Task: structure prediction
Amino acid sequence: MKEQTIIVPSALFWPLWGNQFAAFFDDAGVSYRVGPVTDHSILELGLANSCEGFCLPLKIFCGHVAFLAAAPDARILIPVITGTARGNSFLCHLQQRARDIVVDLGIVERSRLASPFFEYGASLSLGEEGFRELGEMLGVEPETARMAARKAASLGVSVPSGPIESAGAKVSIALCAHPAIRLDPLLGGRISNLLAGMGAKVIDPDTAAFTLDGLDPGEAHFSLSARTASSVFRCLEEPSVDGVVYLQAFQCGPDASIARDASKRAKGAKPFLPLVLDQNLSDGAIITRLEAFMDILLCGTNEKNPPKSRVMDSTEAAQ
Amino acid sequence: MTFFTFSWGKNYIAIRGLLRVLGHELDTPPVMSDRAIDLGVRESPAFLCYSGKAVIGQLLEQLEMGRRNFLYMSSFGPEACRCGGTGPYLEELASSKYPNIRSARLGGNSAEESRDAMRAAFPGTSNRLHDRAFFVYFVKMGILDAFERGGVRARALGANVGRIERIERESVERLDRAQFVPALFWIGAVHGFRLCALRKKRRAPILRIGLVGGEHILSELDSIMARIKRTAERGILLDWRSGFFHINRMADREHPEGGKMARGYLEAQCEPYLHPAPGGTEILTCARAVEFAKEGYDGIMHIYSFGCLPQTAVIPAVKRIGKDYGIPILSISIGDRFDMQSLETRIDAFLDILHAKKRQEGAR
Result:
């Protein structure tokens, strides 16, 4: 085991690529620690340290880095994930520049960071080269790093752990969002628990088979947005899903048109609720909307009331 | 065939030049009006950037005018952001109301990509014709850019504004009509001579401000930038080194070296602030801000659309450049609720700061 410990923020990159990084660290013998999950104190730290125009996941990420930067010694992993090797699909500019943003804002010194460059394939799985660079940064023996990198690169991206089910659930709701939202306990996790508490079975869309291959170049431009859109559209067609809740971060440009496109498709298909999440995470407003959505779904499952499609539009949802 | 496109500033003249080489024509886009912007804001998703909304509005306005053949220039690289998908997006948005919309995309990050795109839009186009069309396009873009910069410089030196406007109008009309490349250069040179010959009130500007930001906003001349550039009439030189001409050059992956517009040079300027991975206009903004700071400009204005991803990503870098070089920065975000009065107030306050700073430095 190497002496050097690396700490990884549990937000933004970790939710989707955590299993690849974890596999690499384990195989390369690198001691690593994942930072705490998001809570309100980290959110507050993020709001204090970021810019107004950032999306919520990036603000939260700034909070995580600020929190971890206070810990002495350990280096912090902030990968620079550039896009596909073919250069035709990318993360959004903000996610791609996350390293620069936290350094330029003075949240952390650049010397504290380990920031290897990664490209990904059509399935969004990170490539081997970046893991080799990470190994070099951390002083891992080249051969060990090569083997560990090959294994990590062969893994797919992280997939959600499975449905959350409450006893006697009458409806199945798919919860779709950018992975940094869906897999964040304060964002997607909270909505998931609220829905389960209202008697729903909460399903994560099956994204394991997602690939950028075959998408129109304009559609594939922002990789994660394409992935989210694909999961929303598939859930709208999935017979075992009664309704779809789509979570969108306030000010997320790449995901801007998903809610509108999905609303069009959902008409006549199944209830669809787009929910915009911002830093004012008031439970009351969210619960009211979720309860209304549940009422629509439960009404649809009652034989006396035939199922009806209902799309809450984004302005209604944003109120 | 006659096409229509969106315009920011006079870039449509260069696109028209390109189309004329291919034997086609381009309708003149309407001025970017408040109505077009309102239309775009209404019809676009809430979190689309303000520039994107304005573009959508202007395109919808042209569809109302009966235009149907849409042509636009875009690569699929990171610098293009959402622009690469404008054609399919417009078709999906408006085809139910305006049937028979057709879209064609031109451009790319390499000659091969660009030729492929042109052949998809205009089957059978030879490499030679493609190259000639783009040569005319780039020459016209470069000259239009020089016209704008020259006009602002002449204003800052106190030349008669009415005369400058007349020279600009005449030169742009000539440039639009001409297609023969030596004639284009001649028009550019004559324009420069005419501006130089104007009587000036001062030899040097009172203040020098560097403009950086989103290429759409910097190239837009009809409303917001028109107001910002009027600041030049108060003896203030506004210099910008971005816009569509520069972004076209930056997007060229085949020639990363060579001159101050090439990607390699821009990345070297950005080195302390941004990593060199493929990126969008944030690289241009950061590099130019560093240049202005190094050249001792009095201040920098960072102007961008609310919701613009690359420009939002570069905000921390611009702030840090301001701190590192001790240069005042004014960050202006243009969004749905933008109003001209607040812009004017902010510009006036910024100018007051710059004047005060200059006086203090002079007193030392």
